[in-house]
Design brief:
Largest sheet: none
CATH architecture: Up-down Bundle
Strand content: under 5%
CATH topology: Growth Hormone, Chain: A
CATH class: Mainly Alpha
Shape: globular
Low-confidence stretches: 396-403
Number of domains: 1
Mean pLDDT: 88
């Protein structure tokens, strides 16, 4: 297989590989109703099972992403994609209760830590400067494509295959991602080391704008992954309470909600270019927070109204995604981007861990079989994006941005 050389070919290869590594992303969220029933789990335990994936991510990402300032990021990507395949296969073979499932799903999160942001670093290192912002937008949008396809193929195959077989299929997809990047992307030289590690970290940690982007990403992921972790379970509960054709296939609705992240993320980055990054982020975070509250207090609404509202909300929460990541990259000198991305991912995906767990705690506290419990869960999502909005307010010197 020839190595990709043109910017377009590089973006296509990395987006395809990212989509393949995301094949297993929706396994636990999609199977949560089945696994919680089979293993007798509370909503809080279900939140932990979803959130442990992101805890694995945040424990590994400082090392793996900052390592890309000293190694070719492609090498980190290949090893981590292989780890993802191993973890998914291990879940299929050995996860038979809550404790063992936590361990294998945590390990899968470690694999994501070495593929998502290192993949972005490997891509941007090979792109000309003029193509980096839009390349970043398409790559981060491929996260949504992969997540949406994950929900979709699981919805279609869940009636046909036992859940261990679904994990095995996702493991094969991770192996295909390894082969694609291994043979379609040429290796590169290690980046020149211009600072010792502690100097890079000290420089990044002292940059208020970088920290503000990190805090905003925390709020974004709190909302996003709290929503994605519980959406299928919420739709399944709604269908069980009031059967309706609109909620008969929860995984299909979750897939559509996730696919909407792609155009929303790309358009969001274009909006940031047109109207100014900080101004744009403040407005769209306020919008998604308001929609979270609207969903929270729409319990009992007909499914024909509730499902479209959920889809609009799903799109709104992604209008800031690529704008945040592209903003971080453009604010950071090339020699510190790996370290900055490590911090950004660590703080941001801490939100991905907090969101599902806090949602589950609220659900248990107010009643997982009541509208009040689910309303409380969606209120926690508004709180999460509110934290992100507060962080964006902390960015100083916003007038320096091009308008």
């Amino acid at each position: 297989m020839a190595s990709a050389r043109s910017p377009l070919a590089l973006v296509a290869v990395f987006c395809a590989a990212e989509t393949l590594t995301m094949a297993g992303f929706a396994l636990v969220p999609s199977l949560l109703p089945e696994l919680t029933a089979q293993w007798g789990l509370s909503a809080t335990a279900g939140g932990w099972l979803s959130g442990i994936f992101f805890l694995g991510y945040i424990l590994a990402v400082p090392l793996l992403v900052s390592l890309t300032d000293r190694l070719d990021a492609r090498r980190v990507y290949l090893a981590s994609a292989a780890l993802s395949g191993f973890a998914l296969a291990g879940f299929a073979l050995f996860a038979r209760d809550f404790a063992s499932a936590l361990g294998w799903w945590w390990l899968a999160g470690l694999g994501l830590a070495g593929t998502y942001m290192p993949g972005l670093k490997a891509l941007t290192d090979r792109l000309p400067v003029a193509a980096q912002s839009r390349g970043t937008a398409f790559y981060t949008a491929s996260f949504g494509v992969g997540a949406g396809l994950s929900y979709l193929w699981l919805e279609l195959t869940q009636p046909l295959l036992a859940w261990p077989a679904l994990f095995a299929v996702a493991a094969v997809c991770a192996v295909l991602a390894v082969l694609l990047v291994r043979f379609a992307v040429a290796g590169g030289e290690a980046p020149p080391v211009r600072h010792v590690a502690h100097d890079r970290w000290r420089s990044v940690l002292s940059d208020r704008r970088i920290l503000s982007f990190c805090g905003a990403y925390f709020g974004h992921n709190w909302e996003l992954f709290g929503f994605r972790s519980w959406l299928v379970a919420y739709l399944a509960w709604t269908q069980a309470s009031t059967p309706d054709a609109w909620t008969a296939m929860p995984g299909l609705i979750a897939a559509l909600a996730t696919f909407l992240a792609v155009p929303a993320s790309i358009l969001g980055n274009e909006g940031a270019h047109r109207w100014g990054r900080t101004r744009w982020l403040k407005r769209v975070m306020l919008l998604s927070g308001g929609l979270a509250l609207l969903v929270a207090f729409s319990g009992g609404a007909p499914a024909s109204l509730l499902v479209p509202l959920l889809l609009v909300y799903a799109a709104s929460m992604n209008l800031d995604s690529a704008a945040l990541t592209a903003g971080l990259l453009t604010e950071t000198p090339p020699e510190k981007r790996g370290t900055a991305l490590a911090l950004y991912s660590t703080i941001g995906f801490a939100g991905g861990f907090v969101g599902p767990v806090v949602f589950g705690v609220a659900l248990d506290a107010f009643g997982r079989a009541s509208h009040a419990g689910w309303a409380a869960g969606f209120v926690t999502l508004a709180i999460g994006v509110g934290c992100g909005r507060w962080a964006i307010d902390r960015i100083d010197g916003a007038e320096r941005e091009p308008r």
